[in-house]
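Researcher: I'd like a candidate sequence for this fold, 88 residues long. If you have to choose between options at a position, lean toward the conservative one.
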């Protein structure tokens, strides 16, 4: 029986996983743009509402989203710096 995996032709997932961490530094502004889009979307939704409860809930959700995004960015930064340290 012949193996399905050929080491001379790696799978596409192998190529995705084996990335150059230094090249990921160019993706820096993308999380900021994503956060800006969330802020604009939530503020637009809050401004259309006349209920105080809806505005408060929108603010709470916005704060949760931004704090989660901040933590994720810090973790990704630390992981990327650790990978760069290992390469140098």
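Model: Candidate sequence:
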């Amino acid at each position: 029986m012949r193996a399905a995996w050929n080491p001379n032709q790696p799978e596409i997932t192998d190529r995705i996983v084996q990335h150059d961490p230094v090249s990921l530094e160019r993706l820096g502004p993308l999380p900021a743009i994503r956060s800006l889009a969330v802020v604009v979307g939530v503020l637009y939704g809050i401004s259309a509402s006349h209920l105080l409860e809806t505005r408060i809930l929108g603010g709470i959700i916005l704060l949760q989203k931004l704090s989660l995004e901040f933590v994720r960015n810090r973790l990704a930064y630390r992981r990327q710096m650790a990978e760069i340290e290992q390469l140098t």
